[in-house]
């Protein structure tokens, strides 16, 4: 097992733990900012799971942007968009 695999497994374990906590939080809150941050955390976990699926031979690379798979570029941007939206909702709530 090389260092890259150890790092990936560590990210999988921590990501699964974070996803579990997100699901617990989701049932207890209805605040829009927290919900957007929770979706961002779930997408971050999907970013970790995606390479594992690729290593296993399971791919969803039907779409390409140039020579780069669509999901490899879309997931990080989507995660950051949800976090930015969560922070924007928090800022708007604070300044009202």
Present the secondary structure layout:
Elements: H1 3-28, H2 32-55, E1 64-65, E2 68-69, H3 70-94
Antiparallel strand pairs: 1-2
The coarse overall form would be: globular
Radius of gyration: 16 Å
SSE string, helices as H and strands as E? HHEEH
What low-confidence regions span 5 or more consecutive residues with pLDDT below 50? none
Number of structurally distinct domains:
1
Number of helices: 3
Helix percent band: over 70%
Strand content: under 5%
Provide a short characterization of the protein structure.
With 96 residues, this protein is mainly alpha-helical. 78% of the residues lie in helices and 4% in strands.
Write up this protein.
78% of the residues lie in helices and 4% in strands. With 96 residues, the protein is mainly α. The chain has one domain. Helix 1 runs antiparallel to helix 2 and helix 2 packs antiparallel against helix 3. It is globular, with a radius of gyration of 16 Å.
Structure keywords:
96 residues; mainly alpha; 3 helices; 78% helix
